[in-house]
Amino acid sequence: MPHSTSSNPIVATFGSYFHGRVLRRLAVYLALMLSVVWSLVAMEQARFDQLAEIGSKNNVQNLSRAFAEEVRATLAVVDLSLVQLRGTWQRDQADFGKAVADHARYLRDRVPMRIAVTDGAGRLASTGAATARAGLMLGDLPQFSIHRGRGDDLLAVGGPEHCRITGRPALQLTRPIRDGAGRLSGVIAASVPPAYFLRFYDSIDLGPNTTVSLVREDGTVVARNTQGGRNLDMGRKLTGAPFLLTDAASGAFRRASQLDGIERFYAWRRLPEYGLVVTVGQAVQDARARYAQQRAVMNSAGVTVSVVLALLGWAAIGAADRRRRALKALAAAEARWKLALNAAGDGVWDCDVTTGMATLSPSAQRILDSEHAEISWFGNKGIAELLHPDEIEAIRAALGAHISGATPDYVYQHRIRLRNGEWRWMEARGTVVERGERGEPLRMVGTFSDIDARKQEEERMRRMAHEDALTGLPNRALLEERLRQAILAAQREGHKVGLIYFDLDKFKPVNDTHGHAVGDRLLRMVAARVRGALRASDTLARVGGDEFVVLLPRCAQAADAERVAVTILAQLEQPFRDGDLALHISGSLGYALYPDCGGDGEALLRCADLAMYDAKAHGRNRVSGSYRTTVA
């Protein structure tokens, strides 16, 4: 097509853009540029899949650890109850029913379980209730008969199966009862509903197809929960699962479920002392759904960039024969357009580097809280005077790196002082668009972005991740991190680490009588009072409803931890004033020491928790350190 010679100014101006040579070059340009753009889009989409997988694996691994600890703690409480009730049965069978009732009352908010005792022949002797079906034969069940062939005193875990006493599904935990000569004289058992372990599912949110499971080491499903139903697959047997093919303590894998066919990212942890494995799985599609919006934005960005590149390329190719000055102006205008496109709604600035004066758009004035559309980049009453003192040197270094050509753009996030004296977070971007003959910068254009809300949200999320929302104390996650650091320091320096686990006696009656608002205020008062009784180096954390943990990072001996625990108990026994109310509570406290009681943070927490329940079992309002032997 020949160049247009029309007298019409529009045709004369734009006719050259449809010349055959321009269109051929445009076709080559688009073939190259669009392949690059959509390759980058494809790479970003693949990166989102990778991020989804990494995030999902981290989530399920953390949750499997928490689920395992919850199951382990539950079974430990049941085992402790069996040991204590066995002692009661052997000492005074007439008092056994009262002891069972006391345990049921102590543990009603923690572990629902039923107790049964058989004689040596396997006949039901007692359930601790007046309605016990005495004489019912249970000795043929695996969880009872296993103790006939063993001479030890170990806990046996059986099930899942339908309990003959209640007729309901149950996980059976049993211990032998032996006479003075070591002969088997009976078995004491606790039946726990498998569905009880699935309450952990209600505290997580990884998507509609998330699943948590409790599985025996032979692959039998003890309990499993999904959005579709609770424990529908109890008793089914898994084959070929990775955790069945290894002796490792934990692991992760990705596969389609044998039970419902959904592909998931799984993490598992073994409980070898109980012959159980816990698993947590997040569906692949649920993990990827978290990035659905980013995928859509990326596709839209690909389309937008493609269109923009096509238009810009067409314009650049069509104007290739224009004069050098016009090309230079076009390059500057293109740089401004690209910055404005990438930061729509942000403030634009244009700086004459030789004079140091920057022209601000209305949005830039608003972000800087400036009364003037033109402001000095340096000097008195310039932007430099508004910068936060802690960030000035880093800003100068970043700006100098770009001006010297070491970086393609200037990008930095920093704070700027407003006229009312407050600080606002902003992100500054800029590019040198014009240089002199010796390469010296003459002109820079860029944008200011108000990121204060984002920074505040990031800080809020950081606090939420590490602080208890009600009391402001460290939460379990922060406690575990500090405990890990304390143990590392103790390993280096050779001292001990103390841990005190306690909860509040008579707290539930306060909630029931005066309401949860009073209960919440009481928890805050407890936190403040106990925190005031500790050293600055100690950590007080809230890990449950009315459960707290005190970390003593440096102890010389067990007496140090006991002395702190006694001080805390004394603080709890003092009345708490809430307006006209005088609230009276107490506490049950258990303490443990590293390395005396456990070789890592999980074992130490578990040991202190068991010691606390020992304090409860012996009447509450006391301190116990009875679990001083090592917990693996």
Features:
632 residues; alpha+beta; six-stranded antiparallel sheet; 16 helices; 25% strand; elongated
Description:
With 632 residues, this protein is an alpha+beta fold. It contains 16 helices and 24 strands. The protein has helices at 9-14, 20-91, 96-106, 142-145, 284-289, 292-318, 324-342, 362-368, 383-386, 392-403, 452-466, 476-493, 507-514, 516-532, 558-573, 601-617; strands at 114-119, 124-126, 156-162, 169-178, 184-192, 211-216, 221-226, 229-230, 250-256, 263-271, 276-283, 347-352, 357-360, 374-376, 410-417, 423-435, 441-450, 496-505, 539-542, 547-555, 576-578, 581-583, 586-594, 622-624. The strands form five sheets. A six-stranded antiparallel β-sheet has the order 8-7-6-11-10-9. Helix 2 packs antiparallel against helix 3, helix 2 (20-91) packs antiparallel against helix 6 and helix 13 packs antiparallel against helix 14. The longest helix has 72 residues, at 20-91. The chain is elongated, with a radius of gyration of 35 Å. The N and C termini lie far apart (85 Å). The model is unreliable at 1-6 (pLDDT under 50).
Overview in brief:
Helix content is 41%, strand content 25%. The chain is an alpha+beta fold and 632 residues long.
Strand-helix topology:
Elements: H1 9-14, H2 20-91, H3 96-106, E1 114-119, E2 124-126, H4 142-145, E3 156-162, E4 169-178, E5 184-192, E6 211-216, E7 221-226, E8 229-230, E9 250-256, E10 263-271, E11 276-283, H5 284-289, H6 292-318, H7 324-342, E12 347-352, E13 357-360, H8 362-368, E14 374-376, H9 383-386, H10 392-403, E15 410-417, E16 423-435, E17 441-450, H11 452-466, H12 476-493, E18 496-505, H13 507-514, H14 516-532, E19 539-542, E20 547-555, H15 558-573, E21 576-578, E22 581-583, E23 586-594, H16 601-617, E24 622-624
Parallel strand pairs: 23-24
Antiparallel strand pairs: 1-2, 1-5, 3-4, 4-5, 6-7, 6-11, 7-8, 9-10, 10-11, 12-13, 12-17, 13-14, 15-16, 16-17, 18-20, 18-23, 19-20, 21-22
Helix pairs in contact: 2-3, 2-6, 2-16, 13-14
